[in-house]
Design goal:
419 residues; 12-stranded mixed sheet; 14 helices; 55% helix; 17% strand
Length: 419
């Protein structure tokens, strides 16, 4: 006969069967107890699925843009700075310029450097408008830097970029929204209230940095955006840089720092009046945000699991009282204290185990639903799934100890007299 930790398999099967019988007898009480565990476990699983999906998407985005790409920005901040009322130390920093980007591009360590700007706008054609989307002022290397592909048409010519011609490459999805089945190439649309000619359709890579309502919908020559739109030069103006093959990001960043300090005539004792941001910093920032988010959800879920555990203890105490005669009969027939203790512990573990399994199903379903709405591919966190089952069973064992010990210590004669 097989055994598990000193418990025979027959004993285990018998106790699980008793647990299910007790569950059927007290459906409402057992259901409410299971519900507490379901809420706790499903919360953890939902958040784990979302966080895992977000992290995977961040890594995919960085790989699409290239892990060596980095940026010169006016100020690095994890939260946007109010451009109308920035702190003095930011206010005295010069705005980035195209001339600085050109100087950086000439460095022997640098393969590409270009100044870009990001704005918010709506695209409109014959009365059909998009929601508010992001637009970029960039150049013909945008696709190379950000990934994705040109689905139709072309990028900008050198003369269009120099002169700031009113031309635009729009995202394929946005084109379908405003044009339907009409071929958009060559058509004139309104981009943020200004007429521009569509010269290309762009299909971007999946991008976690562009949540629904903020996806990149239009790319225009930087000079056109600079003179035609209001640019938040504190938060939305930057120089995109890629080192030459064989040059490390650290070496390229050092060269850029030296060049920027030289351009701005900073003395050795002066602090930098600009910031550099690498893909690793972007990843670290988003990881810290998701870690905090997950930690908060974990605390909330722990409270729900604690409530579920207390519910298990309360239900089991009631169950022990209600089954006093049954305990007396079992002891009279030869059941030991250990047998009774195991019976009620396994019953509590079964109760929370069912709650854990249901919580996993609900949590994974909810997590996949949310990530689908966010256009994020989510994978099942297998390790956490197994951990969630183990934790839910452990809660049953921990909170089931007191009522199980009470049942085991009952005097069989007194138990048989109980009415």
């Amino acid at each position: 006969m097989g055994s598990l930790g000193g418990i025979s398999l027959d004993q285990l099967r018998e106790n699980v069967a008793i647990a299910f019988d007790a569950l059927r007898v007290s459906k409402l009480r057992s259901g409410l107890t299971i519900l507490g565990v379901v809420i706790g476990v499903s919360t953890v699983m939902t958040m784990a699925t979302i966080v895992q999906g977000v992290r995977d998407q961040i890594l995919n985005t960085i790989q699409a843009a290239g892990p060596t790409t980095f940026y010169v920005i006016k100020v690095f901040s994890t939260t946007p700075v109010n451009p109308d009322n920035p702190p003095k130390w930011i206010r005295i920093r010069p705005d980035l310029s195209a001339e600085e980007a050109d100087r950086i591009a000439q460095l022997p360590q640098i393969g590409y450097a270009g100044i870009w700007a990001q704005i918010q706008l709506r695209l409109e054609y014959q009365g059909v408008r998009t929601q508010l989307i992001s637009g970029f002022g960039a150049d013909d290397r945008y696709q190379e830097m950000q990934g994705g592909e040109l689905a139709e048409g072309r990028w900008f010519t050198k003369s269009e970029m120099r002169s700031g011609a009113p031309v635009v490459v729009i995202q394929e999805v946005q084109a379908r929204r405003i044009f339907g089945r009409i071929d958009p190439i060559g058509k004139t649309i309104q981009a943020g209230g200004r007429p521009v000619q569509v010269v290309g359709l762009y299909q971007p890579p999946a991008n976690i940095f562009a949540p629904p309502g903020q996806e990149v919908g239009a790319v225009m020559p930087y000079q056109f955006v600079l003179h035609g739109y209001h640019i938040d030069k504190t938060n939305a103006l930057f120089i995109c840089i890629k080192p030459k093959p064989g040059v490390t990001v650290a070496d390229a960043m050092d060269a850029v720092t030296i060049e920027m300090r030289s351009i701005r005539k900073l003395r050795p004792a002066d602090h930098d009046n600009f910031d550099l941001m690498s893909q690793d910093q972007i990843l670290d920032t988003f990881t810290s945000i998701t870690d905090i988010f997950f930690l908060v959800m974990l605390v909330l879920a722990s409270v729900a699991l604690m409530v579920g555990g207390i519910g298990v203890m309360a239900i089991m105490m009631v169950s022990v009282t209600a089954r006093t005669r049954e305990i007396g009969v079992r002891k009279a027939l030869g059941a030991t204290r250990r047998d009774i203790l195991l019976q009620f512990l396994i019953e509590a573990a079964t109760l929370t185990g069912i709650g854990g399994v249901l919580g996993i199903v609900v949590g994974l379903t909810a997590g996949r639903g949310v990530t689908a709405l966010m256009n994020i591919e989510a994978k099942t966190p297998v390790g956490l799934t197994l951990l969630a089952v183990a934790v839910s069973v452990a809660i049953g064992l921990i909170f089931g100890v007191i009522p199980a010990r009470r049942a085991a210590r009952m005097d069989p004669v007194e138990a048989l007299r109980y009415e």
